[in-house]
Amino acid sequence: MHTKVLFPGSFDPITNGHIEVIDYGLGLFDTVVVGLGINTSKSGLFAPEDRLEWIRRCYAHEPRVQVEVYNGLTVHFAQQIGASHMLRGLRTAVDFEYEKSIALINRQICPDVRTLFMIAGPEWSHISSTLVRELLRFGGSLNGLLPDAVLPDVQAAAAQKFRS
Ligand code: ADP
Known about the structure:
alpha/beta; binds adenosine-5'-diphosphate
């Protein structure tokens, strides 16, 4: 049987923390669908097309990773694509509290889709897209935080945003 997991998020932009979660998913499932959620109440810094392209570039040589945009409820999207599980990363106790309520609500809505959690490794647990956006805004070093394949383009896109 072909197994599939959905890894949902905003990926604004993709970080090495996300890469760790996707790679973990690849070890457990045949296909990892990275779902870029377009959240109307959270417009994001980077254009969804750029965010999508950056994720795709990181996995250009891995056909088992698919990258898709979705609207609406994440758990409905998981059901729609036939994913048995959703994958989330946990960095802190705050992440845990938040993710626990979401997972329980999702379980109520769609009991057949379960959420799996991965504890972030110590080298990545301090990385968040929010922190990366702050560093981009104020010119801090991004060494080791973003995948090499996307770093120059993310920096160029950020420079354009913050200049205008
Ligand atoms: P969202 O806005 O849905 O939280 P993010 O793109 O910020 O989207 O995060 C998507 C997922 O990636 C979440 O499960 C988050 O916990 C996880 N994640 C983000 N950064 C890391 C990290 N450094 N280590 C492990 N998981 C992470």
